[in-house]
Amino acid sequence: MGPEYAEYLFDVGGTLITFDEQRRAEEYVKRAARVGVIVSTAETLRVLDELTQELPDRQRGIQLSLLPVSAQRAFWVDIWAEGFCRIGVREDDAIRFADELLDPAHGGDLQRVFEDVTPALDALKARGKQMGIISNFSPNCESLLRQLGLAHYFDFFVVSGILGIEKPDPRIFEAAVSAAGKDAGALVYVGDSIFHDVQGAQAVGMSVVLIDRADRYPHFESEYAARRIRDLREL
Fold this sequence. Notes:
Number of strands: 8
Radius of gyration: 18 Å
Order of helices and strands: EEHHHHEHEHEHHEHEHE
CATH class of the largest domain: Alpha Beta
Number of helices: 10
Largest sheet: 6 strands, parallel
Strand content: 5-15%
């Protein structure tokens, strides 16, 4: 078990929730077959994982959650359509299929909670820890987490789409420090992005933990003097 903190703050996308990639791949395969493209679920999963790895670079420099809803949707339609194109679907069909799969909440019922999340939050709650959210997310963040059965764990939600500031801007972390009512040094932020989460939290004196389920950053701890975990239950 790692060090104890007064309050644990969490990122949302990639940390608490993700897309159900198995179901998404199955939906891709089903739609591709409609236009005569036969592809395996395994190959589709590989393509979707490839796109997921590219996503941080695609989002860098784009304050996505601060854009109009139509522009946010266009961003995701483009990404999801590219997945269809990479498995051999023509562009016009790819865009049509991506538009079918995406709703205004960017995935809707294709969102799922990582399996380590509920046990970790239950354990922190049992230890009397307060918890909060800092997320680059559209204004529906709290309602989506409520739908997924997670909202009740958190004492406050600092959401970029409501605040008008995105991570790694220190001001969104300062807003969370204010909401927590504690010194930054008593807080720890848990997230999956080095650029948005680690650098942003460290800039205001907050401790940080990188959740690295896919083991992509084996040298993180020596480079950033911060803790890396593979499973939230390690908290």
